[in-house]
Amino acid sequence: MKKTIVYPGLDIPCELREIRSKNISLTIYPNNRIIIRHPKRVTKSFIFDFLEERKQWVKQQFEKNKKENPKKIEFETNENFPIFGKQRTLRWSKEEESHLTALSLVLSEKRIKSPKGREKYAKDFLKTLLEDFVKPIIQEKTRFIGTKKYEYRIRTMRSLWGSCSYDNKLTFNLGLIHCPENVIRYVVAHEVSHTKEHNHSNRFWDLVNTLDPNYEAAEEWIKQNGRKVLCYLN
């Protein structure tokens, strides 16, 4: 179970995470989620004092996020957001099947099972689009480096683009659906490389470079745009 406290004076929930480091830190994510990482034996009063000292900075970061980051997608008609890096306009349609065009994301109203089911259906369709794109890439790259045993899934994550467990369970962020195709390919290459090297050593990066020689351009795109893109579904 996650441990949380309420930020004094701001009434904002903060997640607490114990770490081995002797230092305490505070991270604010694009969706204004706050995580406090602290040594195991630190007292609550010390944490509250730490937060009080940074209250003004936190307020400034919230205002910055509000100005710089896009709103979460509501999945309403005529909303505009990128899919595979290209802006599309959402249209709810009476058509039987949902589909993606050069300019639009067309979602079938006939597929909605309840009045509140739009968001779930829309996310499920985006997940299908992303899986159709990444599945052959995963197969190609795992085959190339000789990884035979692995699993993968796609889900919404707040801060990670992907992950790979020690038993080669790959997880990809649904938010990748908004990224350009070269960025998606890089994230797949990155996580597949972890099936052989569970670290970020030179051998790991050599493997990434083998799977995606242009990975640095994708990394730069993530640095410039990643925070904003993570806001779309969180």
Question: Any key phrases for this structure?
Answer:
234 residues, alpha/beta, Zincin-like, 2 domains, 4-stranded mixed beta sheet, 6 helices, 39% helix
Describe the protein.
The chain has 234 residues and is of the alpha/beta class. It folds into two domains: 66 residues, no CATH class; 111 residues, Zincin-like (2-Layer Sandwich), CATH 3.30.2010. 39% of the residues lie in helices and 24% in strands. The protein has a four-stranded mixed sheet, with helices on one face. It has a four-stranded mixed sheet with strand order 5-6-8-7, with no helix packed on it. The protein has a three-stranded mixed sheet with strand order 9-11-10, with helices on one face. A hairpin with a 4-residue loop joins strand 1 and strand 2. The radius of gyration is 20 Å and the shape is globular.
What is the tally of beta strands?
Answer: 11
Q: What quaternary form is this?
A: single chain
CATH topology of the largest domain: Zincin-like
Mean pLDDT: 91
Strand order of the largest sheet: 1-2-4-3
At the first level of CATH, the class of the largest domain is Alpha Beta
Question: Helical residue percent?
Answer: 25-40%
Structural class label: alpha/beta
Measured between the Cα atoms of the first and last residue, the distance is 21 Å
Give a summary of the structure in a few sentences.
By secondary structure, the protein is α/β, with parallel strands linked by helices. It is 39% helix and 24% strand. Helix 3 crosses helix 4 and helix 4 packs across helix 6.
List the helices and strands and how they pair.
Elements: E1 3-7, E2 12-19, E3 25-28, E4 34-39, H1 44-53, H2 55-68, E5 80-83, E6 86-93, E7 99-100, E8 104-108, H3 118-145, E9 151-155, E10 162-164, E11 169-173, H4 181-193, H5 202-211, H6 215-230
